[in-house]
Amino acid sequence: MAVEMGRDPASALDDLVTVAGRIATAVESVIDGKANAVRLTLTVLLAEGHLLIEDVPGVGKTMLAKALARSIDCSVRRIQFTPDLLPSDVTGVSAFNQERREFEFKPGPIFANIVVGDEINRASPKTQSALLESMEEGQVTVDGTTFPLESPFIVIATQNPVEMEGTYPLPEAQRDRFTARISIGYPTAAAEMEMIDTHGSASPLDDVKPVAHATDIRDLAVAVRGVMVSDLLKQYVINLVNATRSHEDLRLGASPRATLHLLRASRAWAALDGRDYVIPDDVQALAVPVLAHRLLPTPEALVAGQPPEQVLAGIVARLPLPTRR
To answer: What is the mean pLDDT of residues 185-208?
Structure first.
């Protein structure tokens, strides 16, 4: 059932909460005990961004991406990134048609509403970079011709930690295009017992049915854009991002693109709570997943065991909250 967007903002937010709740329930029927990871995934989807899922093998990274794709009635393509994958394998290629005596474009798997990129850091940086234009501009250029991508468009990429065998670190420009990075982590003992009972005989993905349509997601994204952010809170976001650029433990801070992504994600996070305004708690909850993967620590910070997540948590704790004068 399509969301009716010609209604007042309150009704639009009610629709958003209802549809998002259905999607979350469908995904959580596959991913047990990871409600926060599911909510962050929905936040990125409604913020019209892209998601990077980083964790050790076997914890359900690809399963989460597939579950979201199954719960929405839209076009879905999966790309298995390998060292021999070429950029044209992602974007498509112009092939000569013998019958028509002309070149015709054969679209690659990037032409879909939801693109699941499995183990993205096993491909070479050259192939990883094939995603740059599509993720930032919503289009693909091949042989001088530009092809627009249909909305909604989201790349959900999984990757193993960089220390794992046979991986390439993502280029800074690639990481910066992901709105957020999440980790799923190991399940609790109770969730793992339930997984053994439910996943042992059949794949839970077989039971996931679409509970929303691509048009619903487009409409909900429009509703998210209307969530209000006060000037004080905008300044708080800017101060937070600026603090990463001058911190002594970071040699690369967050970019202006990161500022926009944090603001858009905060709007989506607030909308999932049924609010048409953003509060500081929304920004603080998203600071680490939205900003940490873009930051590069200094060698001294690495030696001292200060990862960007810890540095960022300290910045959030010390930064004064916005107050009216």
So the answer is: 77
Two structure tokens written together for 185: 């982590």
Task: Find out whether 233 and 278 touch, Cβ atoms under 8 Å.
Answer: yes
Topology annotation, domain 228-325: Helicase, Ruva Protein; domain 3 (1.10.8)
Contact assessment for residue 67 and residue 53, using Cβ atoms and an 8 Å cutoff: no
Token pair recorded at residue 31: 């991913």
> Which residues face 144 on adjacent strands?
none
Asked whether the predicted pLDDT for residue 71 surpasses 60, the reply is yes
Instruction: For residue 266, give every residue at least 6 positions away whose Cβ sits within 8 Å of its Cβ, in sequence order, or none.
Output: 229, 237, 278, 282, 283, 286
Residues of the chain with CATH 3.40.50.300: 1-226
The 10 Å CB-count burial string (b at 16+, else e) for 301-313 is beeeebebbbbbe
Class in CATH terms, 1-226: alpha beta
CATH 1.10.8.80 residue ranges of the chain are: 228-325
How many angstroms separate the CA atoms of 108 and 140, rounded?
10
**Strand, coil or helix: what is 118?**
strand
* Nearest of 168, 158, 96 to residue 129 by alpha carbon: 168
Confidence label for 274 from pLDDT (cuts 50, 70 and 90): very high
Residue 138 · residue 115 · CB < 8 Å: no
Cα of 181 vs its chain's centroid, Å: 7
Answer yes or no: are the C-beta atoms of 277 and 226 closer than 8 Å: no
Instruction: Enumerate the β-bridge partners of residue 212.
Output: 72
256, 56 Cβ separation under 8 angstroms: no
Q: What pTM does this model have?
A: 0.89
